[in-house]
Structures are given as C-alpha cells and as structure tokens.
C-alpha cells in the first residue's frame, strides 16, 4: 500500500481537484492506496481570521463566513453531478451552521481558548475531504470519507497535540481491515481520549499521512505539493535551484529545520522509524520524478544536498572573565531559557570558556534578555559578567549534506565564497556528525549568501556576473552589443553568464534583478526607465546585494568616479575606461587601492591607458614577478598621433585638426586633445602603477594650443585663430624632416619624473613608423633593457575600448572561479 497526501495548493479550486483525481486514477489501477487531504488552499488561515474577528467583536466575520460557505458550495456544484448534489450541499450547510454557532459563541463571550480554536480549524479538512470523497465516488471509484478524529488519538495539548502512537496504530489497523475501499482521510486533526478535537501542529496533514503510512507498513509515503521536490535552495531566492533526486532522512530533517518548508521534521519521524521512503512530488508536474527521502539514499555525487536559511534571528553573547572555569554556568543559562520555553537554535562557545554565543527567534529576544539578566544579576553587578549583548536582524544560513564527512575543504569553500562576497559571519556552528555547517549573518545578506553558496557547491563550473552599467554612449552601446553577441559562447566555453541588472545614462536608469534583455537594453531603458539619480542608482545596486556584482562606468564623469569608494566598500567590483578616479588626487588613488584590497573586490581599468591594448596588466605582471620599470616612452593619444602622422608637407595644421574632428577622432572641442592633459592623465596613471607618488601638477605638460586660442570661444572661432599659427607648426614639421625625423606627441617616465611633450624621433626609433590613431608603449625594464618591450595597436575607438572593458569584466569572472 501507498499513502498519498495532497496539500492545500493542490486542492485550491475545483480544476486542481479534478487533476488530483486524475492522478489517483492512475494509482488505483495498479495498487492499493489511501489519501490524506489538507483544507482547500487558504481555508485554515481564513478560519483563524474568522475566529479572531469574532473574538474582537467584529461582525464582519459573518460576511467572510458566507464567502467560505459559497466557496465550498461552488466546489460541490462543479465537482458533483447535479443529481447527487443535494445531500452533499445539505451536509456542507449543516457543517457551516455548526461553525457559525461556535463563532457566535466566541463573539458573545469574547473568549477563544486553544480548545475552541482547534475545533474551528478542524472544519477546513473536514469540509475538503468530504467534498473530494464524493467527487472521487462520482468518477466510479469506491471511496469513503474518513474523519481521522475517529482513529487518531492524541493528548489534550491543544494546538500541538502529541500522538498516542500505540492506540492510534491499533485503531488504524483495525479500521483498514474492516474498510477496503479507498479511504479519503482528513489531515491535521485528531481527538483526545475524552473525544475533544485536537490539531497536531505545523504541517499537520503531512504528519497525518506519515502516521497512517507507518501504521499500515506502507511501501512508500508520497507528499504531493506545488514544487518539484526537495530543492537545493529556496527557488524564490535562488533562481538556479534544482531538485535533489535523493537524500537521507537526516539530510532532509536538517534542511527542513533551517527553513526548507517542503517537509517538516515531525512528518518524517514515523516514516523514518519504519524506513518507509518519502517521495516529494509536484501536483502540477505529475510526471516529474521528484525527490526520494530514504535511509539508503545515494546522491553521493553531491557534497552537500542543500543550502537553507532561517530568518528573524537574534544572537546573544554572554561573556565575562568570571565565566572561565566556573562549573554550571551553561546549565544555569540554558535552564533559564528552558523555563521560559525559549528554543535555542544554535550554540557556539569559545574554548577559553570566556563567552557563550547562542541564537534564538527574535520574537523571544526581549523575554530571553530579561530572564538571563535576572538569573545572572549578581554576576553582572559585580563585573564578573559583561552586560548581555544582543544582535538583531540576523539570519542563520546552513549547508547540509552527508558528503561533507568524506570531503575535506567543505568549510573552506563555504567561508571563501562568503568572504569573497563581503558577507560577514557573526557566529559559526558545526556538529561532530559533519552533516551541517551553520553560520549567522546579517539578514540583509540572506539572498546573496544563499546564491553564492549555491553557486560555490552546485554551479562551481558556471558563474553569473551581475553587471550594472552606467554610460550608454558609443562605448557603452558597443559593450552591450558585445555582451549580447558573446553570451552563448561565454556560457558554453567559459562557463560565465552575463546578467545585465542595471543600465543608465545621464537621464534614465533601469533595473531588473532577473536580467535585462541585452539586445533591447538601451531602448528599454529610454522607454521604461525612471529618472536617473546617481545616488539612487548606487543605493539600488547596494540594496539588491547580488553576488558577483560588477559596476561598469563607461562615462568620463567626475561625479560617477566620486562614488567608486562607496561602491567598492559595498563589495561591488568596478571596471571602467573613465580616467578621472585614477588621475585625480594621489590620496584618492591610494584610498581606492586600499579599499579594493580590504574588501577583496576588483578595480580594473585596463582601458584607462591605450584603449584595448594590454598595457596596465602587462606592466603589473612584470612588476609582480619582480621586474623593475626603468623608463617608459609612450604615444598615448590616438587623436594626436593621427594629427601628426597626417601632417605631411603641403598640408596646413589647422586643416588636419579639422579633419580629425570631422572624422570623430577629437573631443567636441579639439583643444581638450591639443592641450596635452589627456596624455598627462594617462602618463600619471602609468607613473602611479610603477610606484611613483605623483600628482597631475607634477607632470611637465606641453600645451599645443597657442596662447591666443586658449580663452573661451566657440569651436569655429578657435579654428579661425588656429589657422594663423599654421606657419609655426610648419616650422616644427620642417625642422624634424630636415633631420629625417617625425613629430610625435609623447610621454616619458624616467628617474621618478614624468613629461609629456611634442618631440621628433628618427628612423631607428619604434615610434617613427607609427600611423593613424595607433598608440605605442615602450617599456624598458631590468629584464627588457637591451630590447625594450613594445606594445602597439589602436589606441582609440569605441569598439576597441569596449572590447577592453569587456575583457576586464570577463577577467573578474575568472578571478571569482
């Protein structure tokens, strides 16, 4: 025989009940079964609310009672043939009238005992099982309504009655000998020896099914619910959670204790004692195999079987020098809590005996603190014990699995994953059975912790990178395009998944924690985004608190750069081509480096110098490996290189600059290129990377904008004035050509100093053949002294810059593996 149980969501409406009966038909053809039903979805809560309203003197309970009656009568009319409805309708009305009398009594006397509440709650299961039994009969299946109060015996601890297993088992076995038809059983309820209705606690219908399965020595117990089985994590918090095919009773009990609500520990106890397998199945996906909980579960390919959490936790710390070596302190502490009927969820004690840390539900926090302070009044008064410290707004997160005991390093992987995501652990507990490792963390970090742990243990071959992009100009748009084009390849070959969570320009911002469709990201933001506020963007990014978060700044904004330290401090990595932060004050540069190291995140800015060229990473690799930079020469402006490589004999300098602007190579105002400050900022960044403590003002900069052209004026007027200096630039070019040299605007770092200026180079110099908008960097180091390392390629353009930014994003994904 099998015992099946269907929960409230499975029988929430007539259509679902019909689906359940279809499932039962498939079983009945093959084997003998018994079925336990919960109340229709939401009815138990409605019954409690009705009694609460009546207790408060709110006559509105009568309206809600009518709605409850209407719901059950509609179920009868939809499930039962019209010729057979009358007797069942009469029974439903009689039962509702009985409920109405009890509620009226509560309304009059303004009193509701646990005894009366149990009786009121029993109406849900009694009504649902009766209606469903008749519906099953209507499908030509011989079934009988079984009110479990007649054979499930309990004590009179109303609200959470204890089962008298000896008597209950006898009654169940005797009953099933006499009744061979399909039994449709009410879950959740029983009766005391004196015949009073009782309820058997949380998840009582599951418990009822387990009691019947054990009494009848069933071959299996099936719990039909609205999920595909025991999941690796709560799918509402971890999108990539999946069903665990097999787990042991102990693993399932641990997970359920820490919040996995698919099944509760009490449910498993009767089945576990008889070693009856428990199958968790989905009513809405009946062909899915679900999960099997048994004594001999395999599933050893998984080190852990699940990640679970329990919120609304308070952490108590009882400590003091007077506790060391004193016998009986723990007994007094936990004895005091026991007297107050406060359950301790987690305990952690230092081996020095200086402190005892424990966690309880926050709802008992005030009560517990007062009781402990009373018990240890004199110790606290005499300074032998510190004042009781309580932390609220915490969560316990646990990883569970019997595979831990065979795999060293499980705890290391757990704490590495949490630490890498900036999640602070307040307390730790692990039993000697190595079945569970529990940590206490901030409640705000719950979702993030569950996701990083799930990723670390179940998806270690794939990382999800949550990207927040600011700046949708040429580089930003190109980056989004690249992420879209490379999405499938990154997923299949690099095991990286790009999830664009936020996108913004100067006017609009848009967020979607589940991901914004890359192809339409910019258009969706412009159409549906809210007004952009940098502070609001940062706060939203921080509040989402997603693992592997990366902030990508594709602007040139000083305001955005001003948020970098806060972003890094929130354990969010940064990738940016924006030079403002690294070329600002030395103090800020060092602060960002310090925050990056302290928080264990990444701050990557390869595209600050040379667009997509591997300059900064190459330089850092040399330095980390023990090399020393002696001299750096570099052409770092694609714009200026285009201008001077195009500035041939017979051409006027002002016309070459104008052409560069028309081709989009210059800033809107070309003076921002010609003044040399962009090159100076890049040179400053390189100087700082090799360890020089320089400010921008320390760099000697040659400004190519003639003095008369530097005042405020429109671009057109600038070109007119610049043309009057063409002969000066002709002279510079001709002087270089007479020496068979070419003009290059270059940066030189040597001897602790930095300089950017226009110079001429001969045919033997690597810069001589440079053309177009290319950049070139010449690195002379201790290792590359005779033949300096040359890095050359396009140093400007949205595509190559976006490619460099994208490479940094991928690099962070590889770092987090």
Describe this structure as you would to a colleague:
- 44% of the residues are buried.
- Strand 1, helix 1 (14-28) and strand 2 (33-37) form a beta-alpha-beta unit.
- The mean pLDDT is 93.
- The strands form five sheets. The protein has an eight-stranded mixed β-sheet with strand order 3-5-2-1-8-10-11-9, with helices on both faces.
- The protein contains 28 helices and 30 strands.
- The protein is an alpha/beta fold and 817 residues long.
- The longest helix has 25 residues, at 85-109.
- The protein is elongated and about 115 Å long.
Strand content range: 15-25%
Strand order of the largest sheet: 3-5-2-1-8-10-11-9
Instruction: Briefly note the structural class of the backbone.
Output: alpha/beta
Specify the number of helices: 28
Distance between the termini: 49 Å
Largest sheet: 8 strands, mixed
Helix content: 40-55%
- Give start-end ranges of low-pLDDT stretches: none
Mean pLDDT: 93
What's the gyration radius in Å?
37 Å
Shape: elongated
Work out the number of β strands: 30
